[in-house]
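User: Design a sequence. Structure:
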């Protein structure tokens, strides 16, 4: 009979099996990484965790009066929030991290980036635009009773004044809400904004559970704010508010996706990145006009997709180049 293996031989055998399994697991992980690189050309990035934001920024555009054509810096909303909490409210980084639901090292990185941008704007006379970032907003408190929204209802909000679609989103004092189910308007209500500034109107509509906004003219910052809270926008609507809501439910609404505010700029509504001019239409692309150039460039610049440097964007547009060309 073959001798029974002693305890040392048995331990060595099990150890060899363990290390073989470990090496096999490591090889499989390396195989997965190589497949990702071959298919996508890069490693899959770690998903960004949304930062918790107290309230949407009320003021989003800051511009030096001495320089009318200053280049623009984009600060994200989460960067703005770290400035607000750490410098404005005097919180510690630990408290700021807890408030924003992120780690302290992440707060440090965001805060450092925000301070560099703020210093650049102040020292070098640049315009500052607060948009973007992966953020989750706390609901705004509404000091009025809003009709209850049905589970399967879609809520349409219309910028409202005396029965008509109000043409200046940034100055809207009332919205009319329409709850729709299966193409029929079930209930409606007029709500007051109670002096909410134009920078916070998107937060007001989100708190009112609006899914869609119909309005007249609206600036780029308003558009971005609505996109941040997930409200679909249909600008350039004119005429009766009730007729506009009905037309939307029936799929025949006439609107202009490129409609911009057409009132004077001094009310504080955004103009791309705060550039002052004296044309009646805030979105008009005139000679020496908007800092962002045309509407497409404006959209891409806010999204961070424009390949242009800030100072030369308009000059290159005049030469016929597109916004995203190198």
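Assistant: Done.
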């Amino acid at each position: 009979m073959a001798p029974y293996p002693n305890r040392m031989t048995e331990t060595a055998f099990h150890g060899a099996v363990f290390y073989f399994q470990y090496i096999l697991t490591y090889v499989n992980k390396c195989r997965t990484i190589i497949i990702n690189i071959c298919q996508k050309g890069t490693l899959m990035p770690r998903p960004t965790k949304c930062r918790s934001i107290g309230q949407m920024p009320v003021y989003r555009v800051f511009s030096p009066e001495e320089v009318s054509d200053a280049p623009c810096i984009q600060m994200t909303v989460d960067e703005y929030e770290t400035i607000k909490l750490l410098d404005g409210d005097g919180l510690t980084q630990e408290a700021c991290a807890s408030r924003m639901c992120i780690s302290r090292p992440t707060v440090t990185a965001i805060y450092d980036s925000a301070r560099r941008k703020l210093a650049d704007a102040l020292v070098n006379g640049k315009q500052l635009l607060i948009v973007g970032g992966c953020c989750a907003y706390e609901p705004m408190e509404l000091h009025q009773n809003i009709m209850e929204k049905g589970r399967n209802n879609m809520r349409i909000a219309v910028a409202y004044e005396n029965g008509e679609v109000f043409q200046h989103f940034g100055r809207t004092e009332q919205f009319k809400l329409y709850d729709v189910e299966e193409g029929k308007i079930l209930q409606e209500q007029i709500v007051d904004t109670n002096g909410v500034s134009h920078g916070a109107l998107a937060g007001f509509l989100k708190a009112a559970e609006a899914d869609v906004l119909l309005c007249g003219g609206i600036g780029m910052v308003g558009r971005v704010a609505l996109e941040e809270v997930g409200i679909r926008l249909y600008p350039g609507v004119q005429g009766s508010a009730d007729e506009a809501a009905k037309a939307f439910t029936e799929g025949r609404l006439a609107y202009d996706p490129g409609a911009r505010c057409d009132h004077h700029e001094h009310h504080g509504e955004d103009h791309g990145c705060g550039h002052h001019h004296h044309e009646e239409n805030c979105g008009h692309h005139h000679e020496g006009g908007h800092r962002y150039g045309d509407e497409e460039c404006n959209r891409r610049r806010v999204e961070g997709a424009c390949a242009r440097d800030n100072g030369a964007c308009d000059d290159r547009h005049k030469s016929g180049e597109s916004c995203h060309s190198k």
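The chain has two domains: 51-137, 151-307. Residues 7-40 form the longest helix (34 residues).
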